[in-house]
Write a structure and sequence with these properties.
This protein is mostly helical and about 190 residues long. It has 2 domains: about 80 residues, Arc Repressor Mutant, subunit A (Orthogonal Bundle), CATH 1.10.10; about 80 residues. About 60% of the residues lie in helices and about 5% in strands. Helix 1 crosses helix 4. The longest helix is centred in the middle third of the chain and has 31 residues. The protein is elongated. About 20% of the residues are buried.
């Protein structure tokens, strides 16, 4: 049975030692959220589904007065994760970016409003670049001490992407400024 990508996200987190729904959501927020986000509304039902299918085992592990459930992979779950990682099937690529969607329709805006939109997108990309450089990369680098390499590889790709995006949007912002006759480039018509 082929699982959804969100299931593999959870199996991977469990394999990495993250054992509760809350901890999985926190780990995602610190690592994969820039390319694969999740919510508590997705994590807990997926944990229940994986447990029901025998991919994971959960056991009650209350903390203080609060209920808590910890999970671990079964042999079947471990096998499913490895099979997915080794699959030669090309994964579906889905790129959803509301900012790019707004940019696509920006012709309905005044030149000033279009330039302001591009400026906001540039600022967002600059902030994401800062977060990657100051928070995500240092956190990913700590995995090297345990021989965990590829979260850092993914973080470097993300940092490079947001750096490029900020630069690209800064150039576009200069090109679309009202009253400024910018040189034509391959970026803007």
């Amino acid at each position: 049975m082929r699982l959804k990508p969100s299931a593999y996200l959870i199996l991977g987190m469990l394999r990495g030692g993250v054992g509760t729904g809350y901890a999985i959501k926190r780990a995602v927020d610190q690592s994969t959220r820039f390319f694969w986000a999740t919510s508590f509304a997705q994590v807990y039902p997926e944990l229940a589904h994986l447990e029901g299918q025998g991919y994971i085992i959960g056991e009650d592990d209350p903390q203080g007065g609060r209920p808590r459930r910890t999970y671990r992979l079964t042999e079947s779950g471990d096998h499913a994760l490895e099979e997915w990682l080794q699959s030669t099937r090309l994964p579906t690529f889905e790129f959803r970016d509301e900012g790019l969607l707004r940019l696509f329709f920006a012709d309905v805006l005044s030149p000033e409003d279009a330039a302001a939109l591009v400026g906001r997108l540039r600022e967002q990309a600059q902030e994401a670049d800062r977060v990657f450089r100051e928070e995500v990369l240092p956190l990913a680098e700590t995995g090297l001490e345990q021989g965990i390499r590829f979260p850092l590889v993914a973080a470097r790709l993300g940092a490079d992407y947001y750096s490029w995006r900020a630069s690209w949007l800064a150039q576009l912002e200069a090109e679309v400024q009202p009253g400024v006759k910018a040189e034509r480039s391959s970026r803007a018509p």
